[in-house]
Amino acid sequence: MKKLLGTLCALALTTAAVPAFADGHSEKTKLRIQTHYAPETTSGKLLTEYVDNIQKMSNGEIEVEMFYSSSVVKSVETFDAAATGILDCDATGGAYQTGKNPAFQFVGDIMGGYATPVQQLSWLYYGGGREAANDLYNKYDMQLVGWIVYGQESFASTAPIAGIDDLKDWKFRSPPGMETKIFEKLGAKPIVMDFTEIFTALETGIIDGADASGLANNVGLGLYDIAGYANFPGFHSMPSDHIACNKAVWDEMPAHHRLIMEVAIGDIALKSALSFEKQNAEAAAALAEKGIQIDAWSAEDLATFRDAAQSAWGEFATTPEAKALVESHISYLSQLGLVKEK
């Protein structure tokens, strides 16, 4: 433990992200960013492209050291590591921080609300979402730079997962937050564990299945080498991965560096939604050919899930920040015709 703390402190001191004049003309921004994704997954590759883009667009003024697969701290600890200066930016997602404030659920994984990435991104950019989210992030010394929404997730399971009835006593990896409450109500037994522990837990039988990511990412993680069952299209979860940076670091960056990072994340968000549409369909076809059973849930089961999810929003929104975000989502979802505002 002492050795680990010493390493982290040395990392923070020796590579702190502070603007510097490298040649008397160009300001430099050096950033250390961690993601929970492995570099070979689709999302990992898109983040690699994001880093490459911001470095090129800034003509090398922005320099990034990227850490994959939560190699510095655990996935759930990435946000705090960035806020305290061990890292500079977090490329995981807000839902990991629900223990800090349940409001993070409603910027991380709304569940049972938006049907497509475009709808969810629309709330962020045109429904007041960015301002509402940053009110929350700033309370914890962080700044939301942008979202990447890759679409609905699919389960990986060692047992059939074809509908509501299959959830009874189904032990599965769940991220922390509202999801555990929803699935407990539906009869499942969610187990919260770190993203990096999923493969081993499936392999050893600690869990029967996992809520990990989209179908293509699950393939990249090797989950269907163990799990013989999946659901597609997904329905239960459409998380927003984020780029969020230490607020002090962000404020010290030159304005054009901040703009480059914001514009570049919008580009990657669009590419993510488009590429996953294609890659998930290709993954489904390849898995079916491999003998993996893929089930699409019935309209009745989907309605049961949406009702359970939306009823959990109010129960989970126990802080002023969470209530404000839920009200913002319901107002915008009603404009889109996806829910009826009460």
Defining traits:
13 helices; 12 strands; six-stranded mixed sheet; 342 residues; D-Maltodextrin-Binding Protein, domain 2; alpha/beta
- Rg, rounded, reads 20 Å
Anisotropy-based shape: globular
Number of helices: 13
Element order: H for helix, E for strand = HEEHEHEHHHEEEHEHEHEEHHEHH
Secondary structure class reads alpha/beta
Distance between the termini: 52 Å
CATH topology of the largest domain: D-Maltodextrin-Binding Protein, domain 2
Average pLDDT, to the nearest integer?
Answer: 91
Largest sheet: 6 strands, mixed
Strand content: 15-25%
The proportion of residues forming helix, as a percent range, comes to: 40-55%
Describe this structure in words.
It contains 13 helices and twelve strands. The protein has 342 residues and is of the alpha/beta class. The strands form two sheets. Strands 1, 2, 3, 4, 5 and 11 form a six-stranded mixed sheet that branches. A six-stranded mixed sheet has the order 8-7-9-6-10-12, with helices on both faces. Strand 7, helix 7 and strand 8 form a beta-alpha-beta unit. Helix 6 (129-139) packs antiparallel against helix 13.
